[in-house]
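User: Predict GntR family transcriptional regulator's structure from this.
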Amino acid sequence: MLDDSKPLFVAVAEQIEDGILDGTYAEDGPVPSTNELAAFLRINPATAGKGLGLLVDAEVLIKRRGIGMFVAPGAREALRQRRRLAFEDQYIAPLLREAEQLGISPDDLARMITKEFAR
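Assistant:
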């Protein structure tokens, strides 16, 4: 399912990234073509192509002329690293600011997180 809160081509790129991270698309393996993505997602092929183009520009995918798009070697780890940094900025930093405002110590916060993981 595509995320409606962001541009469609970005959501397409993130869906492919998710597939790389979860092993659906292996490194050096093929990803769906622009037309396959467009048909499956029921979107304009130009939009699907733009999403794939983002990943080519980010060196997550490589084009093999006449063959298709393939996951670049090392793409999975590069995506993990990029998303870990984004996770820290989007979730951890605000969490720590809020915890500080509420007087929650780092130890208490760690206990809360550990408790939540156990659920």
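The first strand starts at residue 61 and ends at 64.
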